[in-house]
Design a protein that fits this description.
Elements lengths: L8 E2 L5 E2 L5 H14 L3 H11 L6 H20 L25 E4 L4 E4 L9 H14 L11 E7 L3 E3 L6 E3 L8 E6 L4 E7 L5 E9 L15 H9 L12 H12 L5 H9 L17 H10 L1
């Protein structure tokens, strides 16, 4: 009966019982319809998906913008990395044209040039290199070759290697030392020399000139301020001391007596750096990105 008390439930034999009466049946039916009825936002979303054309101009423009912002983020990031930007997978644009480079070394910098007399990079960037080197190395006669592809500037105590971003200490790399790389602008990369005790020093900076066929829209001009900042923030690298004759005799005597010198050697290596003198710069510089941000705020 619909007038019974309570909701009624049916069983296989047709019997039923009720708790709230037949009015509850109408309530639950209306509640079920309300749940199943899609909301206004859901109707609009489903209608948009039904008429969505993945090849329409609006959709293509959206994905182009997404890719553009991703590229801008990757190019302007200042994160320290263990691998350089232009690795074996992602090559510098000029490497796609030139297979063999000629390295022209000078006292304070090096040029990486392409073969022949062909000009590979924009004249604007070549003029930039000449202006920067003339301002920072006034005692040298600066002649930038027209077939230049990249500029390498090592820090005092370091020398240029044979690959992009490769800078090495004059006396060779210390035990467990390694290099890290940091883009300071779209076309400039700093190489950090890291010691196992946590200290790090700028080993050099590499400037990548734009090729003539590169679009200025995605590849802006070289930044003079960023490159100058990288020179001003460099910290002097103090190489390890050579083992003294006294230490060599001590080690030899210990070995002759059967003493395990491993712990002594490790302890000596950890403290074998020259001590700082009053007025020396701090050997562990702050993050380069923070320096740039402070400079922009000032």
């Amino acid at each position: 009966m619909d007038g019974g008390i309570g909701p009624h439930f049916s069983f296989g034999g047709g019997g039923s019982f009720s708790f709230f009466g037949g009015g509850s049946t109408i309530f639950f039916s209306a509640f079920k319809q309300q749940i199943n009825q899609p909301s206004t936002y859901k109707v609009i979303t489903m209608s948009w998906l039904e008429h969505l054309n993945p090849f329409s101009w609006g959709t293509v423009t959206f994905w182009i913008l997404i890719v553009f912002f991703i590229l801008v983020f990757l190019r302007t990031g200042h994160t320290l990395m263990r691998t350089c930007r232009f690795s074996k997978i992602r090559k510098y644009n000029v490497q796609k044209k030139v297979k063999n480079f000629e390295q022209v070394n000078h006292a304070k910098f090096s040029f990486l040039c392409g073969p022949g007399d062909e000009q590979y990079c924009k004249q604007e960037d070549i003029n930039f290199i000449h202006k920067f080197l003339t301002a920072n190395f006034p005692n040298q006669i600066i002649e930038v070759p027209h077939n230049i592809c990249s500029l390498w500037i090592p820090r005092d105590g370091f020398t240029c290697g044979t690959e992009f971003q490769d800078f090495k200490p004059h006396e060779g790399r210390a035990f467990e030392s390694f290099l890290t790389y940091q883009m300071i602008s779209n076309r400039m990369q700093v190489t950090w020399y890291n010691l196992r005790d946590g200290r790090r020093f700028v080993a050099g900076v590499c400037v990548y000139l734009r090729t003539e066929d590169e679009r200025t829209f995605l590849n802006p001009a070289l930044e003079y301020k960023a490159l100058q900042k990288s020179l001003d923030m460099w910290y002097d690298y103090t190489p390890q001391k050579r083992r003294s004759a006294k230490y060599a005799c001590m080690q030899h005597g210990g070995l002759m007596k059967g003493v395990n010198m491993k712990k002594i050697v490790d302890r000596y290596q950890e403290t074998s750096y020259q001590e700082m003198q009053p007025g020396d710069p701090i050997p562990n510089p702050p993050d380069y990105t923070a320096l740039l941000m402070d400079e922009e705020q000032n």
